[in-house]
Amino acid sequence: MDSEDLTLKILAEELRLYKPPHSIPIQQSGSDSESARPKPNRAAVLICLFQGENGDLRVILTKRSSTLSAHSGEVSLPGGKREEGDADDIETAMREAKEEIGLDPSLVNAVTVLEPFVNKRGMIVVPVVGILSDKKAFVPAPNASEVEAVFDAPLEMFLKDENRRAEEREWMGDKYLLQYFDYEAENERYVIWALTAGILIRTASIVYQRPPAFLERKPKFWSRIVN
């Protein structure tokens, strides 16, 4: 086993030990509880991690098509709404990643499910962390109607104060900071912000076991309990 395989193996074992808060509604396969049944306001995103050529841990991101009616042209993680036939959140994230960017689920080892985020509209967004051991086996095939570009960024950048800015916003009397990260890949400039940035800050904090080097002040609606 080479050093790259060993690093990813250790990471997978560590992430499998992560347990999200029990108070947050997690959709798991085979659950009979009312809160775990499929809901139309539930979605899942795939945080697909792999080791870059320099040994850094990287995450696959997309730029949404400019023709989409919602969040057009924005950077996001592969993912989408739960469908009735999906067994669990992992299947939702994997199915959507295949549909959007041609990522074969057999290439990805899903290792953990993080606590959900909730957007302003009440949509539950469940982050699924997966590891892509063989990056070369993945040849991006973006669905042009949904995805304009596929790129990757270093996960650790979401803990650093570099190329970052924040704007103060307010929701129902609660002030919070909206984080923006500027990133350039293949002569293209991307802005990673809002919920996507929040999910990646949380993921990086868990993976690297340290808080970000900046004030976060998350919006309260992200962690609302949804029945």
UniProtKB/TrEMBL annotation:
GO MF term list: coenzyme A diphosphatase activity; guanosine-3',5'-bis(diphosphate) 3'-diphosphatase activity; metal ion binding
SUPFAM superfamilies linked: Nudix
Entry keyword annotation includes Metal-binding: yes
UniProt cross-references to InterPro entries, sorted A to Z: CoAse, NUDIX_hydrolase-like_dom_sf, NUDIX_hydrolase_dom
GO cellular component, one term: cytoplasm
Domain Nudix hydrolase as annotated: residue spans: 40-196
Keywords tagged on the record: Hydrolase, Magnesium, Manganese, Metal-binding
Gene Ontology biological-process annotations: acyl-CoA metabolic process; coenzyme A biosynthetic process; coenzyme A catabolic process
One Pfam family in the UniProt entry: NUDIX
Signal sequence region: none
Cofactor(s) needed for function: Mn(2+); Mg(2+)
The protein's name: Nudix hydrolase domain-containing protein
Biological source species: Vitis rotundifolia (Muscadine grape)
Taxonomic placement: Eukaryota, Viridiplantae, Streptophyta, Embryophyta, Tracheophyta
